[in-house]
Every structure is written in C-alpha cells, then in structure tokens.
TrEMBL record:
One Pfam family it belongs to: CTP_transf_like
The protein's Enzyme Commission number: 5.4.2.9
Record-annotated Cytidyltransferase-like domain positions: 4-139
Protein name per Swiss-Prot or TrEMBL: phosphoenolpyruvate mutase
Gene: aepX
Domain of life, per lineage: Bacteria
Upper lineage: Bacteria, Pseudomonadati, Campylobacterota, Epsilonproteobacteria, Campylobacterales
Keywords of the record: Isomerase, Pyruvate
Family: Belongs to the isocitrate lyase/PEP mutase superfamily. PEP mutase family.
Recorded GO MF terms: phosphoenolpyruvate mutase activity
Keyword field contains Isomerase: yes
Enzyme class at the top of the EC tree: isomerase
C-alpha cells in the first residue's frame, strides 16, 4: 500500500489479511511456531514517484500512521513497484491485494506476483473485491482541489529530488501557462509522465511585460505572478533570480521567496548589467569573482528560515567560453560555500560540453543536484541527461515562445482577411474556453 489517505477500502483489505493470519494461528497445533503476522509492504516515496505523484505524507509519516493500526503486526518498506523482492524475502503464506489491479497499469505487477508465488511455491494470492464508492484517486482529486499549503509546496522540490530523476520543470509566466504545465501528461509504456514543477524565468517574465531581460522587472511584480500561479496549482516552483542582486538585497529576496512558498532560487555568477546568457559573448557580460559569489550564497543560506529552501548556483563559465576547468573550480567552491545545487549552462547546439562537465563534477561529487537548461542543445532527452547525472531539466522559455507565435498568427490573420472567420481554427473554441476554468459557467 501507499497508505497516504487511509479509507474504509484499505481497512477492509487489512481485515481480510488479519482473518487469514488468525485462521493460520487457529489451524496451527505446534505451539513452538511463531504466530502468523500481517506484514504491510509500504511503498517508499521513490516507488510511488516512479508511477504517480508524490504522496502528501513522506514514508516516515505514512509509516507512523499504519504501524499504529491494530490490524497490522509489522511494516516493511517496499522499495519498488514490484512485490518480488519482498515476496522472496518473506515467503508469505498469503499475499493480499485489492482486486482493482486486475485491469489497468498494474496488471504486469500482478502477473509478476502470481509468477513469483508459483516459482517459490510458498503461498497464494488473495484478492478482496475493491470497495465500491470510495477510492484514493477520488479522495486525492478532492484534496488537490482544496490546494496545498505554502510549506508543503516549498518542501516538495526537496522531496522530489530524493524520490526521482530527472525532474522535468516547465517555464510558466502566468496562471494559465502554469495550469497547462500542471495538467499536461502523457503515457509512456504504461507510465504517466508529467512536469514536476514550474520555472519562473527572468527571460519570459521580462518579455511578457515587454521589457528586456536585464533585471528590470522588480521582485514584487514577479511575486505577484507567482502568487497567481500558486492560487490555481499545487506543484513546486524554481525562481530565476538572475544575479541575485547585491548580497545585502539578496538576503531579503530569499525571505520573500520562502514566504511565498517558492522551493528554490537560482542565482548566476555574473556581475554588472546582466544580459541573457544565450547571447553569450555577443554582448558584454562579466563573470563574478568566485569569493564574492560564494559570500552571496553563504549569506542567502544563513538568511533562509525553512530547512527545505534551496539556493542553486548557476555557472556561466561555458557561456562565456572560460572552459571546463573554470566551471569545475567554481562548482566546487559554490558547493563548499553552501549551494544546494549547481546549474551548468551552455549555448552550444551539442550537449557535449555540458555532459563533459557533469561527468567531471560527478567524479568528485555524487550527491549535489545538477540542473541543466537544454534550450540550445535540444536534441538530447531528459532521460538521457538524467542518465548522465543531471537531476533537474528545465524547459526555460517554451510556453511563452509558443504563445507568441500563435498570437501573432491570429492577429495578422484578422487584419489580412478583415474578419476572424479564417483564423477560427487557430483558436480555442468559445465553448471550450468558457468551460476551461471551473466556475466560469
Ligand atoms: C531564463 O529563462 O531566464 C534563463 C535561462 O535564465 S536562459 O534564458 O537560457 O539564460
Ligand atoms: Mg534568466
């Protein structure tokens, strides 16, 4: 069980398991044998994250709840979706599981249980009927509709980093773009893939306000957008804070971001008038002195109040063609100064220099999360970047770029035809937009 939201359907299954254990004890005439146990295989956060969203409560919290149920004797972790490891370790007389897994994505898992029990010839599978009228899926949907607390959202990113790799993060610059990022999902080989959180991009936050990406949009204005995003979503957000500004100002930004429920801030090691990194050396850009940047990281870490807020240091050495050695020297210094993660940026079409950096960094540091932004090197898949050692993959500007193209085409079409009939097919229908947001009708 995941046992995140315990309901009568779970209790029914546990009662049946208890009945089987009691029956074994009753039939047992050898008093030297131990009593039969009901053992609950509790899915770890990692196991759950491999097929659906993280549970509300972490493993320890869920364990604290279920181990106090009198129907259960013992709780053990189930580290994978597959039951095979635990079955081999326990050789159970019975495996009890709700019959809902006879169809849908869990059918393979079920078959594996049947095959394993047969191979080991140790026990049988009991499948109580799924209790109608109550389901975790519905309870989850209801709970999500209520929303998420500031603290729970803030700590989600740290929990996700522990539980899965890669995290796919999508740029959002408005509540509607965040709703798209929140709700889009695809199914690959029976597994649901969704975005794990949002990127508040300085480029798209500036561009959507008609301003250049030079730290010209105030934090308060960007926090307004984030508040609107948070009002209608439940996923974590990573904030692009450009250079972070002066050290003395950065510490206040950290507090403001935390208060809002932002999970992480990324600051880049540039100084002076910041220009967008993808412009590289075509414009004048100055990299910050290592010690100065370390001091800013340390001051930010000291300023934060929550334990889960993260400060991620972004290295611009490859963007500014300073080479791998400079990038690595900086990475280790920033981690030493307290950075919770490293973002390595590149504007090459090939991912080679980023992969080379990750390999060299991982040779010395296997833990610190690595963030990559494959805007230029867009042929490499998130999964491949994760295999190379990256933890977070940010798609940093795509929703705004997509919307601009769509909006411009429609604006031009209306003028060209002097009416809107021809561009109707490029627009969402009025009926669809009216029913898009609950409460409109
Ligand atoms: C942003 O999205 O604003 C970024 C990433 O900082 S990049 O535009 O590639 O520099
Ligand atoms: Mg930026």
């Amino acid at each position: 069980m995941a046992a995140d939201l315990i309901h009568p359907g779970h209790i029914n299954i546990l009662k049946i398991a208890r009945d089987y254990a009691n029956a074994l004890d009753k039939a047992n005439t050898d008093s030297s044998l131990p009593k039969a146990e009901v053992v609950l295989g509790l899915l770890t956060d990692k196991a759950i994250a491999s097929y659906k969203r993280l549970p509300y409560m972490n493993y320890e919290q869920r364990k604290a709840v279920v181990e106090n149920l009198s129907l259960i004797d013992r709780v053990i972790p189930q580290e994978t979706l597959s039951y095979e490891g635990n079955i081999r370790a326990l050789l159970p007389r019975y495996v009890v599981h709700g019959d809902d897994w006879k169809s849908g994505t869990q059918t393979k898992t079920r078959q594996n249980v049947i095959d394993t029990l047969q191979e080991l010839a140790c026990g049988e599978l009991i499948e109580p009927q799924y209790t109608p009228g109550i389901s975790s899926t519905q309870l989850n949907a209801d709970a999500r509709a209520i929303g998420i607390s500031t603290n729970a959202r803030l700590s989600l990113l740290a929990r996700l980093l522990e539980a899965k790799k890669p995290l796919r993060i999508l740029e959002t610059h408005s509540a509607i773009s965040a709703l798209i990022a929140q709700n889009t999902s695809v199914t690959h080989n029976g597994q649901t893939v969704e975005f794990d959180g949002f990127w508040s991009s300085s480029l798209t936050d500036s561009t959507s306000r008609g301003k250049p990406d030079i730290e010209a949009v105030e934090l308060s204005s960007r926090l307004n957008t984030i508040n609107e995003i948070f009002e209608v979503t439940s996923k974590p957000l990573i904030y692009d804070a450009d250079t972070g500004g002066k050290l003395e100002h950065f510490v206040f930004s950290v507090r403001s971001l935390e208060r809002t429920g932002v999970s992480a801030v990324i600051i880049e090691d540039k100084t002076g008038l910041k220009k967008n990194s993808l412009l590289g050396n075509e414009v004048e850009q100055t990299q910050e002195d290592i010690q100065e940047f370390c001091d800013k990281i340390t001051a930010g870490k000291r300023a934060q109040i929550t334990k889960d807020f993260m400060i991620i240091a972004r290295i611009e050495s490859l963007i500014l063609e300073k080479g791998q050695a400079d990038a690595l020297k900086r990475a280790f210094a920033y981690v030493e100064a307290g950075a919770d993660g490293i973002m390595i940026h590149s504007r090459q079409k090939s991912p080679d220099e980023v992969l080379e950096f990750i390999k060299a960094f991982r040779a010395k540091d296997s833990k610190t999360p690595i963030v990559v932004v494959p805007t230029s090197f867009n042929a490499i898949r998130a999964e491949e970047l994760a295999e190379a050692g990256a933890n977070i993959v940010i798609y940093a500007n795509h929703l705004l770029r997509a919307s601009f193209v769509a909006m411009q085409k429609v604006a031009q079409g209306i003028l060209e035809y002097d009416r809107s009939k021809e561009i109707e097919s490029s627009c969402m229908s009025v009926k669809d937009i009216l029913s898009l947001i609950p409460g409109t009708i």
